[in-house]
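User: Hi! Is it possible to get a structure for several chains at once, not just one? Here's what I have:
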Amino acid sequence: MSKILIVEDYKDLSEFYQEFLEGDNLFTASDGEAAVALYKEHKPDVVLMDLKLPKKSGIDATKEIIQFDPKAKIIAITAYGSTIGSKALEAGAKEVLRKPVRFNELKEIIAKYKSI
Amino acid sequence: MDYWGNNVVSKNQEKAFDVLWDNTTYKAINTYREGKYAEAAELAKLSIDIAKKVYGNDSTKVAISMNNLSLIYDAQGKFEEAESLSVKALEIWENNLGSDDPDVATSLNNLAGIYVSRGKYKEAEPLYKRSLDIKQKTLGQNHLEIATGYNNLADLYRLEKKFNEAETLYRKAIEIFEHNKDPKNPDIGSALNNLAEIHKIKGQYTEALNLYKRAFEIWRSAYGPDHPDIATAINNIAGIYYLEGNYGEAEKLYREVLKIDEKSYGKNHHYHAMTFNNIALVKEGIGQYEEAESYFKEAFQISEKTLGEFHPSLVTFFNNLAGLYRAREQYEEAEFYFKKGLIILEKVFGTNNPDVAMAMLNLAEMYESQGRTDEAKRYSESAKSIFKKTLKSD
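Assistant: Yes, the chains can be modeled jointly so their relative placement is included. Here is the combined structure:
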C-alpha cells in the first residue's frame, strides 16, 4: 500500500481521485499550505498536485516540498497549459499532466512513480 | 486432392519442393521485412503447406514456417493466432531437437515476445529466462545473442515497471555489445536508448541526455542521417531539453525532426502533427502564445486531414489548445475546444468511458470557476455516474 497525497481544490475531482486510488493510503489537501504540511507530516510516496490552488499555489507548494525532500515525487496536474507546467517542472515536479487527464495515463504514471 | 495434385511425393518432386520451400520462406521473410504483412502472411502459409506436404506435419521446417507466420501475425496485431502458432512451433522444435537446442531458445524468445504484445508479462518472463539460459550454455556468456536476450528481458521489466532490474540488464547488454567491438551495431543504440528511458523516468535527465545522444550517434552511423529512427532519437533528446527548460535547444531539435520526417513521410503525416504540437508546447512554455496557438491549430488540421475528423489523437491537440485559451481566460474558445475533444471521445469510446467522464469533470471545473454552477453540476453528475459504472467494472 502506497501513501498518496491528493492536492486538488475542486471537490468533485478530488473525490474522483480518492475513489480511483482506493486501496492506497490517501491524504487530501485542498490548498497549497495544507499540502506542504501534510507532506512534511506523512512523507507520501507520490503527490498529485493541482497547480492553481488557494492560499499557496501548486508551484510554491512544490518548491517547498522539494526543499524539504528533494526526492519528492510530485506529479503536477493543470488545466492551464504549458507555461505554468514549465514552472512546475522548474520547481521540481517530475511530470506535468494536462487536464483533462486520460484515465490510463493517470493510472500508468501513478504506477510508475509508486514503483521507483 | 489438394493443390499439389496428389498425395505422393517422388524424390525429384522432393528436391523441387526443397527449393520451393526455401524460396517461399525466403520471400516471406523479405516481404515481412519490407512491412508488407498481408502478402508475407500468404507466403508463410504457403511455406507451411509445402513443409507439411514434403517433410511431414511434425517436421522442423513446419515449425520454422509456423514461427515465421506467428511473427507476421504479431506484427499485424493478430496476437491470438500468433500465440497459438508459436506454441505449436515450440512444441515441434522441442520434440525434434530436445529442450536445450539454440533453435528452441529462439522459439522461446519469439513466444515470449508475443506474450509481451498481449500484455501477458508473467508468462513471458520464464520463457525469456529459459531462452537466455540455453543461449548462455550453447553460445557462451559474451555472444551478441546474449546481449539481445538481456535487452528483451530488460524491456519486459521496464514494462512491468521493475526499473532497477531493467537498468542492470540494459547495462549488461551494452557491456556485451561493447565487448564484441561492434560499435555501429544499431542494437547498442536500442539498449542505450532504453537505458536512457529509465533514467528519464527516474528524473535523472543528465544521464538520460548523454545516453540518448550516444544512441543517436550509433543510429546515425548505422542508418544514415535521414532514417525515421534518427528523427525518433532527436525527438527523445529534444524531450529532455524541454523537461530541463532548455526551450531554445528543444525547439531547434524539433525542427530537425520535422525536416527528417518530411523526407520520410511528407508534410501531411500524423508525425508532423505531433512535432507541431511539441513546438507549440515549447512556444507556450516561453510565453509566445500566438505562435503556440497557430502550431496547435496546424497540428490538428494535419491530423484531421490524415486521420479523419474523429480520430482520438486529435483530442490531445484540442485539449492543449483549450488549455492555452483557458490560461489566457479566453473561456469561450477554451470551452469550444474542450467540447470538441469530448465529442470525439464520446464518438470513439461511447458515453460510458472514464476518459469521457474525465473530460466532463474538466469542463465542470471550468464552469464552476466561472460561476456557471448549473452547467458545472450537470457535467459533474454525468461524470460521477460514468465513473460509478466504469470504475466498478475496471
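The longest strand of chain A covers residues 3-7. Residues 31 and 73 of chain A are 18 Å apart (CA to CA).

User: Great, thank you!
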